[in-house]
Amino acid sequence: MWEGKRVTVLVTGGIAAYKVCSLVSTLAKQGAKVQVAMTEAATSFVSPQTFAALTGNPVHTQLFQDSGEILHIKLGQQSDLVVVAPATANILAKAALGIADDLVSAVLVAASTPVVLVPAMNTVMWRNPAVQANVHLLTERGYRVVTPDSGTLACKSEGEGRFPPLETVLDELERALTPQVLAGKNVLVTAGPTREYLDPVRYLSNPSTGLMGLELARAAWLRGACVTVITGPISLVIPDYLKQVSVVSAREMHQAVLKHFPEADILFMTAAVADYRPALEESTKIKKTGGKLTSIPLERNPDILQSIMPLRHPGQVVVGFAAETESTEIHALAREKLAAKKLDYIVANLVDKTQAGFGCRDQEKVFILGADGFQREYSGIEKRDLASSLCDLVSGARAG
Ligand code: C5P
User: Fold this and answer.
1) Interval between CA 323 and ligand 1 midpoint (Å)
2) CA distances, 191 to each of 11, 233, 375 (Å)
3) What is the mean pLDDT of residues 154-177?
4) Which helix (H) or strand (E) holds 186?
């Protein structure tokens, strides 16, 4: 993603400036050409030398150069993206008013590329009506202002105002450079396994980690969608920019999908939903006895996709997933499921006992089949790339 991208990072004077070292380092390691400019206050927190070492480029702090180079124009216009991190209340106010009295503020006035501001400050400062009014104004003018995290702040108070995790900031930057083909769309994703309890401490489940679903949710959000993700029990961290609904059993997932599907333009049903549940859930732990436990009676769970298809309204795109264990049958099974569930697309992939397909970053064999005759096959594709490809496919499907 970042290979060859020209990124101007403007550092202003907040304690979170130290976190921007990791951001700059990651961008540079991933191939971005990073130029850093700092306000005078920012240099009290991190030395320009640190950013120079991380980027391999000189760090700029002065508006006017002896060399005659017009730096604020170069940094604002000869880059693919301008990032202000951390963005103080002061720079938000200056940007809102168009003040250009130092290098950083002048770059913002001169910027002709997308600008992302990452505010970080004390909660009371963040909530100050003047700051909020500036954020509102900047957002209206097309700047992307990232919502700060909540937690313990440098001043030891608790609340909103923290610099978000590195991954979230990187995703925000990527979003600013991604064509917003899903802007205004609601995307619903189900992810992970379900658990079907036998007693309070034992359950039937599967090794799904929810990674494919989260990659799809991320890819849809990068393209401008508003994304809700319904997750079974998973341990992956869900970024704040996704709305999360947590469920445990297939029946809970069914209820959650029924609730959110009417608002969705696109549904990616990646969850590995248990087809069966114990007919009886004991209220206390099942005790072992001397003899065998010969059977556990099971009953069918609702087929979520089948139950919602009659409710779909025109234009809703539904994508089902099918994890299969027989390589030779993957095409036939995909065709069968696409027809039986009346889906727009089915994504069939191979899984096995070694957990190939579950949890790992890439998929060994994937077959995508569309009701419109679309077919594509991959042997060895990263889940992140598959998610991008599927989002582009469904955004095209909507447009068409
Ligand atoms: O028929 P099969 O269970 O293999 O189909 C898989 C697809 O159906 C997946 O998209 C899965 O999320 C969905 N599913 C469902 N309800 C179930 C089981 C699976 O919607 N009870």
Assistant:
1) 9
2) 37, 9, 24
3) 91
4) strand 186-191
Calculate the CA dihedral of residues 117, 121, 124, 125 and round it to 10 degrees: -60
Ligand 1 pocket: which of 247, 249, 270, 273 to mutate (most atoms <8 Å of CB)?
273
List the helix and strand counts (H, then E) for the chain.
13, 19
Centroid of chain to Cα 289: 48
Distances (CA, A) of 120 to 90, 135, 253, 264, 323: 11, 12, 36, 33, 43
- Nearest residue to 10 via CA among 46, 355, 125: 46
Residue-wise DSSP of 48-70: HHHHHHHHSS--B--SS-TT---
Render pLDDT for 234-282 as a digit per residue (tens, 0 to 9).
999 999 999 999 999 999 999 999 999 999 999 999 999 999 999 999 9
- Whether residue 337 has its Cβ less than 6 Å from ligand 1: yes
Q: What is the pTM of this model?
A: 0.90
From the CA of 123, how far away is ligand 1's center (Å)?
Answer: 44
**What is the rounded distance in angstroms from the CA atom of residue 264 to the CA atom of residue 154?**
40
> Is 254 near ligand 1, meaning CB less than 6 Å away?
no
Respond yes or no: is residue 155 known to be catalytic.
yes
For residue 228, report the phi and psi dihedrals to the nearest 5 degrees. Answer: -110, 135
Q: Residue 39's closest CA among 94, 77, 115, 78? A: 94
Look at residue 399 and tell me whether its pLDDT is greater than 70: no
State whether the Cα torsion 101-102-103-109 is positive or negative: negative
Can you tell me the distance from the alpha carbon of 51 to that of 54, in angstroms, rounded to the nearest whole number?
5
DSSP output for 132-149 = HHHHHHHHHTT-EEPPPE
Catalytic position from the list 155, 226, 360, 391: 155
Is the bond into 193 cis (omega within 30 degrees of 0)? no
Residue 274 near residue 193, CB atoms below 8 Å: yes
- Rg of the chain on CA atoms, in Å: 25
